[in-house]
Amino acid sequence: MSVVEPALSETQLAAFSETLAEGAIEYDGLAAEYDADEETYHIETPDRHATVDADALDTVAAEQAAYITNWYFYTQAVGSEVKQAFCRWLELADDHSVPDRYDALESGIAREWGQLSITTTLADDGTRHYEVRHIDDSDVDADALTTHTDPFDARDIGTLDADGRYRPLRTAPSLDSGWIFPDLAADEVYEAVEAFYPATVVNWHREQRGELDIDHWRDEQDRQSGIYNLITVLPDEAVEWAAAACCDDSQCLKRREWQLSEDEPLDADGGDGVFPCREPCSMVVAAGREWAKLEREDTQTYEFELTPSEKDQLEAIIDSVADDEIDEIREADIGNGANRWRVRYLREKRFDDEGNLSGTPTHPDGHDPDDGGDDH
Amino acid sequence: MQSLVIVAHGSHLNPDSATPTHTHADTIRKTGAFDEVRTGFWKEEPSLREVLRTARGDDIYVVPLFISEGYFTERVIPRELRLEGWDPDLWDSEGISADTATLVASDIDKEVHYCGPVGTHEAMTDVLIRRAESVTGDPSVGDGFGFAVVGHGTERNEKSAKAIEYHTERVRETGRFDEVKALYMDEEPEVDDVTEHFDSEDIIVVPLFIADGFHTQEDIPEDMGLTDDYRTGYDVPAEVDGHRIWYGGAVGTEELTADVILERAADAGADIGDAIERVRQQTKPTTLVAGD
């Protein structure tokens, strides 16, 4: 494998000398300054100190040139602090020196952001190129994937899952595969990730700086108005159940950082995601409203006739739906309680003409509360 | 550096709800009038809570892609964006004249220009007329045609009817259509009886809604009798009671809506050069471009 031989372009040299004319540079292992009296540049990198004449900047050793192209890329070519931090994370910049990274970038450094696999590679002039694909497509030949060049295409790719169902939660682990962005620039890879997983990079960056602002459940409750006022009556234990049900890694790739309140942590696992979840999302709030309505009901004692296997079966059905495993149950796997024939058999046997389990009415007193609601 | 932030409702259930927002954002992005165009949603991501932190501009213009002033523009959006000191009186509007207010958003500790909703801007009248042209395929449509602007009614928001009446009157003032009337989904005069409200054989019907969804794709076509079952579709025009109904769907999906977003930002002080004119040209139906 050949090692990248950095070549400083005229643009890079001009930017370097213009910046040094303003003051010294210290960036990522590079320390440089301009001596106006001597008209020379002092360039210091971890393993090399050099002094070169003003007109001989283009003769710096390859190792030092690498540090300069690295400085140029991050400070002159990448648009903002957030993008810089993200691109640096993508190439493990905090863990490895510039020469080590340049070696590794030759073949590419791949990192995962949610279900995205993002591979950074390097051009001779230090410019980074980014390839983005689904983690499930890591080993797939690029020719077999649908090529995209516009980072905003990510929005459409993320709208529906593989079964064509709408994904209202962009960070749900249901991103469809089969596509590739083979060559994005730094600003573009940021936009693509922003479109796939909105606001995740900026919140991750706030967290990196120790500045993540977390709004806990009680803050969320206090802020609501209109129909969502209802979540103020959701019992605390229901918030625990909701967090365990909705915010698990199997449902959302954000790492839940919000709790009941700052002093009242939830027991539910917040997940291992790279990017944080800083407040209950609109999906959780909308679901919380439904649960607030449902939790207003009192429990009631019912009597059902079920065989032990039928009780097991009901539990298996609930598990299969909750774990989204229905599609994996084979047609003829009658031994699985959630198999369609098994469920249809149970319905035939245990439902009466009104659809009541074991003929037991849901509302023995005939009262059937209206379950109104809308999507606002 | 200038940023445009378009905020909209979005939906947990309907993937098309955000489509106009994204389409208009793309149109404006292509003009280069703003250094960046961001979108934020009440029901989708990035949320209204987090959209401002995705914007980097020194001058940030927030334009609500909503039809009317009311609960969302006056209460929900300012609260979620954390606009310090917000008060609906800052817009000094009785329902259709909200323009802009400049406030610090505490989420980013920066001033943002919070604009009135797209739906009550006078330029929205042009979008309604453009929709009449695009749905009939006739750039000079008018003579012999009636025009119905359809709204929700006042049940959920008393100001929503004001926007409907405002644009209805403005379309009427152009003198271009034989008859122009406001119809409502949940109050008189009702869109169900559209043919009773017009003498004209041809009636253009355009809902003043931002996105197509349950109301514009299911309720209204069925209520007007364009179809018995929205799933089977309907003709444009469709024959109903001896009239031809040219049903246009939600006006907010018309490409020219991007122009109204630009107008809102420009009214608030954004420097957008000739972007408005370019969007007007670019979004003209091809029949018009060919005729120019």
UniProtKB/TrEMBL annotation, chain B:
Keyword Magnesium annotated: no
Keywords: Cobalamin biosynthesis, Cobalt, Lyase, Metal-binding
GO MF: lyase activity; metal ion binding
SUPFAM superfamilies: Chelatase (SSF53800)
Domain of life assignment: Archaea
Protein's GO biological process: cobalamin biosynthetic process
Pfam families: CbiX
Gene3D superfamilies linked to this entry: 3.40.50.1400
InterPro entries: CbiX-like, Sirohydro_Cobaltochel/CbiX
UniProt keyword annotation of Nucleotidyltransferase present: no
Protein name per its UniProtKB record: Sirohydrochlorin cobaltochelatase
